[in-house]
Write a structure and sequence with these properties.
Blueprint lengths: L1 E5 L6 E9 L3 E2 L1 H9 L3 H7 L10 E5 L5 E9 L8 H15 L6 E5 L10 H15 L20 E5 L3 H26 L7 H9 L7 E5 L1 H7 L2 H7 L7 E8 L11 E11 L19 H15 L5 E11 L10 E4 L5 E4 L6 H16 L4 E5 L4 H6 L4 E5 L2 H14 L3 E3 L4 H5 L8 E2 L8 H10 L7 E5 L5 E2 L9 E2 L4 H11 L3
Parallel strand pairs: 1-7, 2-5, 2-6, 6-7, 10-11, 10-14, 13-17, 14-18, 15-16
Antiparallel strand pairs: 2-3, 4-5, 8-9, 9-11, 12-13, 15-18, 19-20
Helix pairs in contact: 3-4, 4-5, 5-9, 8-10, 9-15, 10-14, 12-15
Bound molecules: ligand BES, manganese (II) ion (MN) and zinc ion.
Length: about 500
């Protein structure tokens, strides 16, 4: 779908969208339309229960005396509560309401609104982002879809005062949306198509945006001593990989500034290994590479909008399979850090992958901070459901910045506690630590404590995204399926605090 910004002016025909505020209050464009219709628009509103609430809308088909094929009235809620998120939701809802109705072009009127803190051009840009985000589809394997079920909408015109400003504001947002789409694509691919080698190949495509991409194979990782990561992958016929991506975008005096670092869990399929999972729902484990998908999409977003920052993305890629070559419960592995781990449950594999990825990142890049993303524990879904990601951190400032960025973009995180008593639950008779606590409680916290043993003094945060990586129901800006939760959050964190 193409999105264009044009100067104010009602069209005479086609499909037009106008806003109505809470309490049936018409925007200027709605008023102008009502006039053309000799009061028909107001009569239509009065004939039903449409009051202009946010997320409500009212379609008028081919109203007589006009040349329009369709007028869509969209509820905008109260003027005072219109913010970026609200405009994104409205944009997404407009796309959903009109994309499969047979229209190729739609024009949306964005008016200045009394008592609203946003200017029309800002509102238009956010609305465009919402429409773009909701237009995502993963349909490459659907060969028999009926034409009438496919989107017909090709061009979305947004009409507002300051169209040029809106266009300029939207350009970097559109790059972020491209990053989101890449993440959603990666998370949606099945594990027979996407495995460590092919996922690494996808990361390599970022080269054309100016990202430096290195791929480490098993021999190199063995040399580096990454016994924790390699142990997880040893049961699979697919070879493990580690991908290192660098965007050195910092300009001026700070050109060689220490980078910020993002680290992703990339288990391309998690059967549980010898500690095998039950078969019901196991197909979900194709998206156990969600953290690495977010890191790749984030790098694409940052490079795409030429962010003024030095950033590294590191992802550990393995497939966790049971086989004659697989790691056994009770095996003891030596991580790159030198610390030994007794693997009591081969299904607690994400932390083993991240142990080596985090240590490697810290040693090689000495980053300002490290943030890892991982679909790490089922327990975080018990804690927070599918609403928020779990945040664990050794740094209050970084934590605060993440919480704020999350609220700003609608990707909410909730800080969870850590502490020595939780750490002790990993102590082990046979090795430096075990990979599960043994008890039934605090599963997400002990997983975070495990990771913390591999970050040293580096400011660090861990996002457990198991509950928010895949969505069973659509929202205004997120269709069903892969959400790409984390891309917009971390793009925002970088934009707000690390591009100065
Ligand atoms: N990938 C899973 C966690 C997961 C569960 C992600 C559900 C998304 C949805 C992870 O590797 C895992 O198996 N964790 C175990 C840990 C346990 C063995 C200590 C879990 O959560 O049960
Ligand atoms: Mn597992
Ligand atoms: Zn897993």
């Amino acid at each position: 779908m193409k999105i264009t910004f044009i100067n104010p002016g009602l069209p005479k025909n086609g499909v037009v969208v106008v806003g109505v505020l809470d309490g049936r209050k018409l925007t200027d464009s709605a008023k102008a339309l009502d006039k053309i219709m000799s009061g028909g628009l107001v009569r239509a509103i009065k004939a039903c229960r449409f009051k202009g609430d946010k997320t409500s809308s009212l379609p008028l088909l081919a109203p007589g005396g006009t040349g329009f094929t369709r007028i869509l009235l969209v509820g905008m809620g109260k003027a005072k509560s219109i913010d970026a998120k609200a405009m994104q939701d409205i944009g997404g809802d407009i796309y959903t309401a009109l994309s499969t109705k047979g229209h190729a072009t739609v024009q949306v009127m964005v008016d200045a609104i009394d008592k609203c803190t946003m200017k029309p051009d800002q509102m238009a840009a956010e609305m465009a982002l919402g429409a773009r985000l909701s237009s995502y589809r993963f349909d490459k394997y659907k060969t028999k879809e009926k034409p009438e079920n496919k989107p017909s909408l090709k061009t979305l015109k947004i009409s507002c005062a300051g169209a040029t400003r809106a266009r300029n504001a939207f350009a970097p947002m559109d790059k972020v949306a491209s990053g989101v789409f890449m993440t959603r694509d990666l998370v949606s691919e099945p594990a027979n198509i996407l495995y460590p080698e092919t996922l690494a190949k996808q990361a390599r495509t970022l080269t054309k945006l100016g990202v430096k991409v290195e791929v480490l194979g098993e021999a190199q990782m063995r040399k580096l001593g990454m016994g924790a990561l390699l142990g997880v992958g040893q049961g699979s016929v697919r070879e493990s990989r580690m991908v290192v991506m660098q965007w050195n975008g910092k300009r001026g005096k700070a050109k060689s500034d220490a980078p910020v670092a993002f680290v992703g869990k990339g288990v391309t399929f998690d059967t549980g290994g010898i500690s095998i999972k039950p078969s019901a729902g196991m197909e979900d484990m194709k998206w156990d590479m969600g953290g690495s998908g977010v890191v790749i999409g984030l790098m694409k977003a940052l490079a795409g909008r030429k962010a003024n920052v030095n950033v590294v993305g590191v992802i550990g890629l393995v497939e966790n399979m049971p086989s004659g070559a697989a790691q056994r419960p009770g095996d003891i592995v030596t991580s790159m850090s030198g610390q030994t781990i007794e693997v009591l449950n081969t299904d607690a594999e994400g932390r083993l992958v991240l142990a080596d990825a985090l240590w490697y990142t810290k040693e090689r890049f000495k980053p300002k901070f490290m943030i890892d993303l991982a679909t790490l524990t089922g327990a975080i879904i018990i804690c927070l459901g599918n609403e928020k990601a779990g945040l664990f951190s050794n740094d209050d400032k970084l934590s605060g910045q993440l919480s704020e960025a999350g609220e700003a973009v609608g990707e909410s995180v909730w800080r969870m506690p850590m502490g020595d008593n939780y750490d002790k639950m990993l102590d082990c008779d046979a090795a430096d630590m075990k990979n599960i606590s043994g008890g039934r409680g605090a599963g997400s916290i002990t997983a975070a404590q495990f990771l913390k043993r591999f970050v040293d003094k580096t400011p660090w945060a861990h996002l457990d995204i198991a509950g928010v990586t895949w969505s069973a129901k659509a929202s205004s800006t997120i269709p069903k399926g892969g959400t790409a939760f984390g891309v917009r959050l971390l793009d925002r964190l970088v934009a707000d605090h690390y591009e100065k």
